[in-house]
Amino acid sequence: MASLRQRNVPRVRPSTTESEALPKRLADIRDFSSLRRWIQYWMLDPLAGATEFSVYYLFRIVPIDLCSAAGAMRGRYQGKARRAAQGRAYSALTLAAPGISEEQASQIVARLHRNSGRALLETLIMDRIWDDDRIDIHPCNRLQNPREPQISRIFVSVHIGNLGDLLGYCLMQLTKTRGMTISRLSPNRFRQRLSEKLRAKHGATVLAPGLKAARQLVQHLREPGNCVLIHLDEARGRQIYFPTFGRPLPYGSNLSLAIRLSAYTGALLVPVYMTRMQGARFKLNILDPIAPPPADDQGAQLAIARRLDGVFGKLVREHLDDWQQLFFLRA
Prior knowledge:
- By secondary structure, the chain is of the alpha/beta class.
- The protein is built from twelve helices and nine strands.
- The chain starts with 17 loop residues before the first helix and ends in a 13-residue tail after the last helix.
């Protein structure tokens, strides 16, 4: 565990606040960078925001299956962004699935294009998906565990089958407790407002990454019955460090954060993940909870890290065509 104590994952840089990002009302046409920033802030961002809010309100009224199918048709990325994302996905497969054929890689990336588009638009209607009974909870006899009012839980997961918000919404509906999670602020103020509007539906508190967030998570989990959702496959420094796919375990990442939170607060670690069954229908899988390790037992914490890496590494390899982080993994 000693090797893990040295950070090998980049720190998350604090997000720029809107007041800091606010350019002057009048651009300095003599300064190209100032002019470009003015155009982005006062013209391009509002236009993109208007488009995204229009899409949101449109898909609030169309049938769920049509919304999902539209996402599959469009994909998550378009144009140059799509070509770049797919190029990264092909490269990432050499790490995540070494030895597969070119034909298999092409099929995975093509399915990922469709599934990532579905996931993007399904985020806009996550409450409708839940209300329409499109989530199968597995196993059913574990339903009582998340509802135990006296035990705090740290749900840990990866971005299989969704972008994270749908999973968070389902867990909040199941537990009926106060939830909390961590997510970066969007650089576009309109997209950030849309994100906040969506996340307000599941009632969880969303924290920006940082030391202050860690203190808030500790305080939150020390209150009986509260829960936290942490995605272990977060992007840091343009790289995905979890699952490891044979690389060193990441220290200073969400993996080490989740394990240390469990050790310091006594909260159970509960691995969960979603799988797409067909279209906009899903299975929410709740695995056996992991007892919190002693705070001073680094060997026990390391064993849990390896266990989670093994569990989620296997799952990701089985669902590469619906693992959203394949676009960001660097070989």
